[in-house]
Request: fold
Amino acid sequence: MVVDDDAVTQTHLVEVLQSAGIPCTSVDSGTAALVWLAAHDPSLILLDLVMPGADGYKVLSHVRKIARFDAVPVVMVTSTHSEAVVERVFSAGADDFIQKPFSRVELLARVKGLLRSRDYLLRIRRREVSQSTVLRLSQVLASTPDVRVALSIVVDELARLMRVDRASIILFGEPGTGHVVASNDDSGIVDRPIALHDYPEVEEVLESGLSLVLPDTHVHELLAGVRASGKRLPFRSSALFPILFEREPMGAIFLRAKEPSVFDDYELSLANTIANATAITLKNARVVQSLRDATRLSTTARAEAERRVQLFQRYADFFESSADGIVVTSRSGQILFTNPRAREITGFSEMRLVNMTLSDLFLPSHDQRTERLLKGFAEGIYPRAVDITIRTQADQSMVVNVSFSSVMHEENAILLSFRDVTQERRTAVELKQTKEFLERVIDSSVDGIVSADLNGTVLLFNRAAERIFQYSANGVIGKLQVEALYPEGVARQIMRSIRDPDVDGYGRLEDQRVDMLNANGDVVPVILSASLVIDNGKPIGSVGIFTDIRERLRMEESLQRAEDELRAREKHAILAELAGAAAHELNQPLTSVIGYAELLRRQLTGDEKLTNAANIIISEAERMAEIVRKVGKITRYETKSYVGSAKILDLEKASESSDG
Reply:
């Protein structure tokens, strides 16, 4: 609520608050504020100090005199800077003081802080009221001789605290019937039997054993049949809380209001706790018998219930502040208490949880395990740090790590502490799958992969490494030094190269031709790529990838021989072709030389000297023709020594095959 006679300031204050999502109303005078406060309850008041008529002091004094406003924070807004004014304002009961002109950020921070403080104070008060109410009603139920009177007090108190028009208690008798044993507003319906089929909401609670809230009976689907039958619904909203004994509903607390109502968790928890206390009182009562006869039988149970309430209260601070979810159950598995963290983890409200058992909370697949746990509790067995899958309010599965404790064994109760480990377990599964996948990848590699720690002990030896080095992985891992795979001194040289930044960069070595040794001492040529394994900036080991190149070398050698043979054949072919061409070209002039020399010899028969010269020409030309004939028949390249280291073609051998 904003109270300020200055229209500009009033408008500005409203705009700042509404921009921050804080709903507000405003008035322009102290007199208007007093009128508005008579009919409304604000969460916070921003009050101008200086106004005509009823000023800020008068409004503040009026607010502080009314009990229902004792938790409403009041912030004084004024342009004065007088310390005396500030002192008077706080003495009059103001919670804070803001001077004009004010900062938007500062204003919102103070307003939000005061609203949080108010909400916290109201929660504390409501909790105190709830606790005192439970204690007072427990005392009433335990100490009042006439149980009917006690139940009347209970419904009167519930109607007041829950702000409903009718609060009644119904006990279930024969199938399909119930009896009203207490009502706050109509004593005429007490002891009157009712047909449960006329009250579908009561039948629902009887069947489920769970609390039920109907915010609006005029639209709720559960009452569709009642509305369709034309029956009048005098109450607009209702809530029912089962009175349970050994998990079976023996009755219900029935709250109804003439207007739509919304109950918060504190109210629902309070009503549920009172229902449990009522169950203790009525546990042996029968509708057809006098409730006075059941008083004596239920006294011990009520006292035990009160003692447990006090016990839980003693541990309340510890439970409330625990970072783990905490649940207290009976030895039969009925949930008796939960802390805020347990409700946050499961998503269930406190009212819902205290109406559940361990079997309800755990997945159905854990039923046999739950039975073993309950049996173990009876034998003093309390497992610790076990994973159990539970269901949440959103009907999702969640893995929690649970420890059971007998710390409250004297109270016949079991304490469970648990935390959500769903993501941790999912991550562990993913890491395991990744590890197994990488192991399969490493084992499937065609190259040998060997890893060792800084001491040289082999830590990883895949199947390809077994094939290359003829060692078994079981006989190597953790037992063999990686130096045994290298010729002497080579392993240290390789490690120096890996650490040398001038080779391939620090911590790595790429495509190095290295000779290794297998288990038989045979040399195995490989191509090696290696690196250091780094963790947090420090080397913790090394890994090497070995490519066996023996087959490649054999193939290269075979290819080289084939190339050499092909080259030789090409040389022979070229030589033969050259020789054939030369012989062909030389045959023509030689034939002419021999022919003309023979003609000259015939013409020079009288001149012996010239005849001899002609004979020599013919003889040498014929010898030359024989050489040309052999050149034409060359089929391979054969040489012989000539002068010094020089070699010439050996015509005899080069043309042998043809001559033969």
